[in-house]
Write a sequence for this structure.
């Protein structure tokens, strides 16, 4: 539900000058301050592997439960500057993506 309303959430946070941290990179790409969470693209890719295995005859009950293995940190510096938030260089150094 929150992902579907991501544009509205980012707009509200921007209007009220609130720094926002989300779990999906798409919110940072839309103007949120930052995002940290499992890579949705990687999760979809891994789901596709499972679909392929099932279509080739593997029983779903025989497939192991997997947890996310790839996480992303995305920081929107443009939003940080607008909000007057100083992002430490050490955080910028470990970010997967910095939006300027």
């Amino acid at each position: 539900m929150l992902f579907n309303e991501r544009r509205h959430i980012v707009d509200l946070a921007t209007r009220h000058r609130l720094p926002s941290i989300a779990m999906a990179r798409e919110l940072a790409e839309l103007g949120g301050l930052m995002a940290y969470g499992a890579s949705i693209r990687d999760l979809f890719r891994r789901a596709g592997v499972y679909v392929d295995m099932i279509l080739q005859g593997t029983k779903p009950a025989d497939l192991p439960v997997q947890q996310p293995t790839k996480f992303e940190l995305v920081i929107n510096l443009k939003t940080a500057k607008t909000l007057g938030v100083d992002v430490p260089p050490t955080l910028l150094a470990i970010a997967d993506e910095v939006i300027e």
